[in-house]
Structures are given as C-alpha cells and as structure tokens.
Amino acid sequence: MYIETTEKLLDFIEKSPTAFQAVDEMQKRLTENGFEVLSEKEYWKLVPGGKYLVTRNNSALIAFCIPEKESRVFHIMASHSDSPSFKIKENPEIKVDNSYVKLNVEKYGGMLMAPWFDRPLSVAGRVIIRRNGGLKEKLVNIKRDLVMIPNLAIHMNREANNGVSYNPQKDLQPLFAAENTDRTLLEIIAEQTGVKKEDIISHDLFLYNRMPGTVWGADREFVSSARLDDLQCAFSSIKGLLAGGHPSCVSVAAVFDNEEVGSGTKQGADSTFLEDTLRRINRSLGRSEDQYLMAL
User: Fold this and answer.
1) Is residue 198 over pLDDT 60?
2) How far apart are the C-alpha atoms of 62 and 81, rounded to whole Å?
3) What is the DSSP pairing of strand 74-80 with strand 250-256?
4) What is the distance between the alpha carbons of residues 58 and 43, in angstroms, rounded to a whole number?
5) Quick one: average pLDDT of 35-47?
6) Beta strands in the chain (DSSP E)
7) Whole-number pLDDT of residue 153
8) Are 264 and 89 in contact (CB under 8 A)?
9) 3-state class of 10 per DSSP?
10) What is the pLDDT of residues 122-163, one digit of tens each?
11) Is the Cα torsion angle 205, 206, 212, 215 positive or negative in sign?
12) CB atoms within 10 A of CB 86
C-alpha cells in the first residue's frame, strides 16, 4: 500500500516543478473530487456539507470542508508549495568569454547547492502576457533538458574534495547555449506557450531538477526526490482532506507560498490569507466574531 502512495507522491512532484504548477495540480485534484473554486473578489455563500477551495497569487491554496452539523471547531493542516531553487532574472543571458551563454540567476530559499551540479535542469513557472487589452497568466514548463550547472574537472580545482564555498552569482549560473546561438530563453518560452515574445511582459521562472524521484533500498523503504521539501506535506494534506469524513469540524488544508524566503508575502504563512479565509467561513455560516475566536 505504501509503495502505491509513494508512487502517487512522486507523480505529483514530477507535475509540480514550481509552486504555480503545484497549486494548479492540487486544484485539479480537488475539483475532480467535488470542490468548488471560490474567489477572494466575490461573495461566498457556503452550505453545510460543502467542499471549497480558494487560491492567492495562484501559488498558495486553502481547501476546506464544511460539516453537515453545526461545529465551532477548525482542524487545520499546513504546508508550503515552494521549494529551494534558483530564480531566473529578467534578461538573463550572459555571454562568457565569447564562447558560451549562461543564465543569470539568484538563489531562492535555503538549499544544499552541491546537488545542483551536473544534473539535467529545465525552466518552469509562469509568464504574464498581454491578451485582449488586459493581462493574462500562463504556466510554463519546458519539458526537456535545457540547462546544466557543470562542475569543474578535478585537475582544475585540486581542493574540490576538501570542501568548497560556492558563490551562487559566479559558480552556479547554468550553462544555456554556445555563444553562436541566436535564441534567447524568452523566445523558447514564447514558443512553448504559443505567444509572441513581445507579448510577454513579466515572468516568475525557476530552475528545476529534471531527474525523476525514485523508490529504493533493500525493501524499497526509502524515497528520494527533488522538492520533497515541502511537496510531500502538501500532497499528504490534500490526500488527507480528500479521505477524511469531516463529521464534526471544519477541515482545512492550507498550502502557503514563500516559506523558503520568510513567509512575509501576501500569499505566505505570515500573511492574512488564512485569517481572511477563516473569518469569511464564519461570516458565511452566520457566526459571530466571538464564535470565530472560540473556534480558533
């Protein structure tokens, strides 16, 4: 049984290279199981027995189930959708020594940097495009080995096995192309999303490890994968919410973004997202402010 669950976890992680894809994948699984999508911009009319979800920034999600009977209790599971990575800067191409092109990136979150070397990497996230006089968001996932952060050969760094201090702005810029290329990352993104390059006005793009997760060990008792922190908890929270009966409480699964950089954004755990959602649940169910505070 646990092998089947683990394989489903690895499938979820593979489909979730960034927080944006993770929330999109969770939303798909919830709506397939009868959850109604709410908007923070609209009035909520919740009913006993109802199942709902709301997102913020399309990178954080809160799903909840209302019991049939009156309840003043919230049971809350929390996790986060983001993982340590490298965020790609605007106009990232850097020509080096008239020989090759690297991408300019910055470290996102607390990470072990050594495992990023010599791995097949690609780019995923979202772009903001002009569409019909307004703005529209599109998810991006280049599903091929696109870049790599190559290690130096041992004869170019004889101290490599004695401990190395990495400078992300110098040592961890991914190799993108040979110098004679006439293509840019944004052109590849435009082709991938089916839009014109000039219609892309902004982006949130990250590197991700393309190596698939694996189950291993003498009795297949271990699992290894990129982004286990914290997609394993997001996966189990949603799975638990779907499996639970919710007879005597408002069951809540909260998946925040930006935990890796402090949670202080509008979609982070230190934001008003959870409080706003719980207050709106109480108001929709006709509860007073005192009953809200008692529930917490």
Assistant:
1) yes
2) 11
3) parallel
4) 19
5) 95
6) 36-38, 51-56, 60-65, 74-80, 85-96, 100-108, 121-131, 134-141, 175-178, 200-209, 214-216, 222-224, 250-256
7) 86
8) no
9) helix
10) 999 999 999 888 899 999 999 999 999 999 888 888 888 888
11) negative
12) 27
What are the tokens at 288?
A: 């007073």
Question: Residue 158: what pLDDT?
Answer: 84
Q: Which DSSP category does 197 fall into?
A: G
Q: What is the pLDDT of residue 289?
A: 57
Q: Which two tokens stand for residue 277?
A: 């959602």
pLDDT, one tens digit per residue, over 206-242 is 999 999 999 999 999 999 999 999 999 999 999 999 9
Three-class secondary structure of residue 113 per DSSP: coil
Query: In angstroms, rounded to a whole number, what is the distance separating the alpha carbons of residues 211 and 221?
Result: 20
DSSP 131-200: ETTEEEEEEEE--S--BBBPPPPGGG-TTGGG-----HHHH-PPEEEETT----HHHHHHHHHTS-GGGE
List % helix, strand, coil for the chain (3-state, nearest 5).
30, 30, 40
pTM of the predicted model as reported, rounded to 2 decimal places: 0.92
Find, among 243, 280, 242, 273, the residue nearest to 255 by Cα: 273
Tell me the β-bridge partners of 59.
none
- Flag whether pLDDT at 293 surpasses 70: no
What secondary structure letter does DSSP report for 273?
H
Q: CA–CA separation, 75 vs 296, rounded Å?
A: 9
In whole angstroms, how far apart are CA 138 and each of 156, 203, 269? 42, 10, 25
The pLDDT score that the predictor gives to residue 241 is 95
